[in-house]
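Quick log. Single chain, no ligands specified.
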Amino acid sequence: MPPSRRPDPRAALFALTLAATLAYAALPLTARAAPDPTQPWRAAAARGDGPALADLTALPFLYEGRSLDRAQFIARAVPGLFTPAVRRCLQRAPAEAEDGALVLWCKPYGFYLRPVDGAWRLADFVADLP
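-> predicted structure:
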């Protein structure tokens, strides 16, 4: 009769790792953890950081019927659009996919982020006034 062998703990660890990997691979792509492309923009908005927001905006930016360059965007659009209430809201607003854009709704605005030059940038906004 052969001597009894103890199970190799490495085999059990391998089997567990393989099972977890296969379970993760079976998840739909939307359920997998992925970086939030809106995170740099949300962080800049939370700080009220005009220069960082300008870096994350497709310029020139149309605001109040005017096409704004970087300096004008920082001076006019940032204080006008990013009030303290909107900045707080943007931290928890879900990003909704719409025609290739990600839209964040914070009354009274919808902010449209679109891929521009390899990064998600604020491309435009809409005012949803009562």
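The beta strands are 61-63, 66-68, 96-98, 101-106, 109-116, 119-127.
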